[in-house]
Amino acid sequence: MDYFFELFFSGLTRGSIYALIAVGYTMVYGIIELINFAHGEIYMIGAFTALVVAGVLTALGFPALAILAIALAAAIVWSAAYGFTVEKIAYKPLRGAPRLSPLISAIGMSIFLQNYVMLAQTPDFLPFPRLMPELPLGPLQSYIGSSGVFIILATAVSCAGLTLFIKFTRMGKAMRATAQNSKMAMLVGVNVDRVISLTFIIGSALAAVGGVLIASHVGQINFMIGFLAGLKAFTAAVLGGIGSIPGAMLGGLVLGWTESFATGYVSSDYEDVFAFLLLVLILIFRPSGILGKPPTQKV
Amino acid sequence: MKGKWTALALFLAMSLFLVAGCAQEKKEEKKEAAKTEQAAPAAAPAAGKIILGVAGAHSGDLASYGLPTLNAAKLVAADYNAKGGVNGMQVEVVPQDDQCKPEMATNAATKLVSDKVTLVLGHICSGATKAALPIYTESKIVCMSPSATNPALTQSGDYPVFFRTIASDDAQAALEVKFVLETLGLKKLAIIHDKGDYGKGFAEYAQKFITESGKAEVVLFEGVTPGAVDYSAVVQKIKSSGADGVIYGGYHPEASKIVTQMRKKDMKTPFLSDDGVKDDTFIKVAGEFAEGVYATGPRDISKNPMYAQALEAHKKTFGSDPGAFFFEAYSAAQALLNAIDKAKSTKYDDIVKALHTEYVETPVGKIKFDARGDAEGVGFAIYQVQGGKYVELK
């Protein structure tokens, strides 16, 4: 039973990261029906920002918790700025274009950002400082490390905050309206461009949190880390039902657990096989994902 | 709904196929090597002369791998000739180009045999070497490669004429397993790899050698996905497998992640890896967690006086730095001529016996050849991270 719980927590940690990134995919899709393939790179840029900031702050002799807070804040701001800019450069000019054009633009942006960071920083792996403090976990230590606890808590808080924001604020209402029907929202006075920008900013900020936490958890970083993480998070978003925020969170966790249990009880060789098997199975029986709503015909 | 069930059924069928495919993978095709025990009459050496055939890529896109060997052969031959030859016989170098292509290698080998060469230095590429070896085996001509690392060349036992001065791909695994069993005395090992050609190959050899030794068992053998966000599940699995040592085949990014997560979970299990991990970046990235990690890596030969001597000779004669495999080739040429010198004979059996028993000082170290034809004393050493850098263990 111990082993089961160890795998459970391992899957929860990994799933939380997927969930954090997946929320960005799903929100953007919900609003403008675009798969933002540059999202994984935003996550990577968040981690790099934190690396640079933490390096400077450590040299200046800041206390550990202050470094974590400032580095995280800097990563969020910087990634949000990147997300905002990417939307303005790569997607806004293509707003009325056929759906394939922004998709290609997204892939181009992803490749551009990867290469940009590779050239600006380094193609090598870099050590990432352990920003998260060690918690006195007692017997729980053998199931989950302190960084795992941090990741799970941070994800829970971020997701709860996002849900509250969307449910109870004016801007949240505007987002929901735009997601439902952007033309109608525009007609009743919602500034759709602002809503779209905000969506990119929030999604990028969450991805940055994920990037900083996971880099600190595994202790290393390079320009490619966004690729596989982005792909998995995209899968999680589809699994949960693309366009649905609770769906993305659930999808992330389900994917994390699937991979973890597949590794634990079968073999890590089959980790990806089972993850994508699950995806196919769910899409066969629920084409719109676990929590996704089937598209309604507008008459 | 019917369509969905069909899709599901197809999918399940596909999954079954996958599992079956995996099972079949293990069944290795047993190659029927045409071993002609009845050897053709050994090519009689030309009186008073030793002909050293040098086969390899001397033209084409891989020439940069083959030409340094030719240079090495010329230097060593000139060296011996200046001292009055080997047992009073002058050494003549006869090059033969194969461009590293198997079909040209058979031609080159046939040509060398008809030229009545005493010995062959080469070939360069594993594929070409494999193609040429049956011809030398039939004619009982000793062939020594400075660069063909494919393990089967020596291990299959099909080519008693074949020797090499470079460590084969599995030599690292053999060295590591020896270290694990004899020095560390571990009993239960988890072997993890990155599913790549190099990493998985290393891991499979490690598994094979451990199983064959009978002194320890492999409790876990698995591949991980390079680039995955974390490896905590596989680390849990290592922990619950009860392994008292972990062997990793692959490169440093994954190794440092796995080691970090192991140490964070308070697992003190020894971690061993290959020369993909014997890299300073590994220590930089894994930081304090790298401490105590073992890795195999090429032995440092630059302090060997013979190394400096060969380098100097090349610079003097050809006016440039030597290229790929030059030192392995120089060593091979020395080993071949030394064997004739010691055996005082150019007969196949005498040369082989001398290669197996007589040590010779070469740039790659003091070597002789084991029963399979691999050079002993060449290649790899065990390193351990101590105080933030790799230290060679003696």
Task: Characterise this structure.
The complex is a heterodimer of chains A (299) and B (394). With 299 residues, chain A is mostly helical. Helices cover 74% and strands 1% of the residues of chain A. Chain A has eleven helices and two strands, in the order H-H-H-H-E-H-H-H-H-E-H-H-H. In chain A, strands 1-2 form a two-stranded antiparallel sheet. In chain A, helix 2 packs across helix 9. The longest helix of chain A is centred in the first third of the chain and has 31 residues, at 2-32. Chain A is globular. Chain A starts with a helix and ends in a 14-residue tail after the last helix. The mean pLDDT of chain A is 91. Chain B is an alpha/beta fold and 394 residues long. Helices cover 45% and strands 19% of the residues of chain B. In chain B, the strands form three sheets. Chain B has a seven-stranded mixed sheet, sandwiched between helices. Chain B has a five-stranded parallel sheet with strand order 2-1-3-4-5, with helices on both faces. In chain B, strand 4, helix 5 (152-155) and strand 5 (162-164) form a beta-alpha-beta unit. In chain B, helix 2 (63-82) packs parallel to helix 12 and helix 3 (102-114) packs parallel to helix 4. The A-B interface holds A 3, 6-7, 10-11, 13-14, 17-18, 124-127, 141-142, 145, 147-148, 214, 217-220, 222, 224-225, 227-229, 232, 259-260, 263-264, 267-269, 271-273, 277, 280-281, 284-285 and B 4, 7-8, 11, 15, 18, 195, 222-225, 227-230, 232-234, 236-237, 239-240, 252-253, 256-257, 260-261, 264-266, 281, 284-287, 289.
Brief characterization of the structure:
The complex is a heterodimer of chains A (299) and B (394). With 299 residues, chain A is an all-alpha fold.
Instruction: Count every beta strand of chain A, where a strand is a DSSP E run of 2 or more residues.
Output: 2
Task: Assign the structural class of chain A, choosing from mainly alpha, mainly beta, alpha/beta, alpha+beta, or little secondary structure.
Answer: mainly alpha
Q: What average pLDDT do the residues of chain A reach?
A: 91
Largest binding interface between chains: A-B, 45 and 37 residues
Number of strands of chain B: 15
Mean pLDDT of chain B: 86
Low-confidence stretches of chain A: none
Q: Which secondary-structure class do the elements of chain B indicate?
A: alpha/beta
Report the span from N to C terminus of chain A: 54 Å
